[in-house]
Amino acid sequence: MAMPTSDRAGQMSPRKMIGLIVGIAILLTLMVIAFALPASRSAPHDVPIGVVAPAAQAAHFEQGADGFAVTAYPDQAAATDAILDREIYGAVVFGAKGPETVVVSSAASPAVATLLGTVGQRMGITTQPVDVQGFPADDPKGAGLAAGALPLALGGWIGAMVIMLLIPGNGARLVAAAGVSVAGGLALVATLQFVIGTFDGNYWVTSLAAMLGIAATCFMVLGLRELLGGIGLGIAAVLLIFLGNPLSGLQSAPELLPAPWGTLGQLLPPGATGMLLRDVVFFEGHGIARSIVVLCFWLALGLALYGAGMVRARRKRDSEPADPGTTTDGTAVAVG
């Protein structure tokens, strides 16, 4: 007996079932690669550091410093200034009898600071590295900042999703996105500064940086969704969660990720926002220019995509024939 149409319609064909299973397996594989591969391949790749030594010793040190980009400085004070200006991560200082001390900044990257400490030990330096800029005592390893990449990525994505679902009207959605950015920035920094203790800088200035990062994310997702629909949300998820989060470098440093993934991560909103927050809080704004440019680009792109989607939707409405049961303003008319 032939299967009823309703039962047949409720079943999935074997081909679609296999495609679904294989697709999910591929998705899970890509997730593992995106999150685990950068960590498993972590190693220095042209990490900028300094050396304070006579020319001959500096040249010898540079030749043996695999994975580092070495710049010579005349004295420890100059190297320290370069660290605080975000030009280098740390420096090895030679004295009259050879390697003498290592200068680092754990706030710039705890992973690089540890790595340079190990380099110093191998060179025979027995003293602890001099940390010229660290995290506050409540969060000495900066775990709050490292863990903040995923909330930054998901916050804008979820905010945009809720706005698209619950708020009608293009203008109202833009206002809501701006409100989400402001409230989210204030809440994020308040949590990291007053609850976790990762930040100790100016709360309002730091919040402005967080607002820009969340706005870039939220408006980008809105724009992609408005112009491309469900495909746009998928693209946003890939950029923010599959790539942006693991490649942000917040848990190590961009230069410790395999090339060119570390550079790519800094061109996406989570990495740029994390770096902007780090530079604003701990380094008096040195090195913020690139992060601001990146975030402003994503913000402007999101607005442009959103505007393009609005124009396309308006043209589509204008091209559709009018319903004889409605007036020109869309209200229903009585028939008969």
H/E topology pattern: HHEHEHEEHEHHHHHHHH
Determine Rg (CA atoms, Å): 26 Å
- Widest sheet: strand ordering: 2-1-3-4-5
Strand content: 5-15%
Distance between the termini: 49 Å
As a percent range, the share of helical residues equals 55-70%
| Low-pLDDT segments | 1-9, 327-331
Number of strands: 5
Backbone shape: elongated
Tally of helical segments: 13
Class based on secondary structure composition and strand pairing: alpha/beta
Task: Describe the protein.
With 336 residues, the protein is α/β, with parallel strands linked by helices. 61% of the residues lie in helices and 8% in strands. The protein is built from 13 helices and five strands. A five-stranded mixed beta sheet has the order 2-1-3-4-5, sandwiched between helices. Helix 3 links the parallel strand 1 and strand 2. Helix 7 packs antiparallel against helix 8, helix 9 runs antiparallel to helix 12 and helix 9 runs parallel beside helix 13. The longest helix has 31 residues. The protein is elongated, with a radius of gyration of 26 Å. The N terminus is likely disordered.
